[in-house]
Specification:
The chain is α/β, with parallel strands linked by helices. Helices cover 55% and strands 9% of the residues. It has a 4-stranded parallel sheet. This is UPF0292 protein DPC56_03395.
Amino acid sequence: MTLGRLQRLNEELEELRYCSKQGIPILIEGKRDEEALQELGIHGKFVKVSGSSSNLSEIADSVARSSSMVIILTDFDRKGNQLAKRLRRELESLGCYPNLQIRRRIMGMTRKYIKDIQSLPKYIQRLEMEISPYHFQTSIY
């Protein structure tokens, strides 16, 4: 069970890595989300939607002008769900294709365990420890 969840999660992260290498912007909530994704080897164009001086319409307009496709990867809590819906509507109205599938799949696999993107690295480490607890311990010799 744990191994299967870890494999599926790694497949989603690999898809994110591929998309980011293709230059597809990833909409996230904040700096900690960006740091977590970078820790997982995902580098690219991150657009922070919370705490920005721009409103969502301005952010969507800017992203839509630079790319016809965007990945929405907001947190899995109520606020993140509302942001994802609003961003999707804004982007679609501008003729941009917002990808919410990766977010939905990751959320489906982690819903019981984490509520935000910044928790992904620790969650993955926990899964890896469950699978191979001795592999990740440091030697005392």
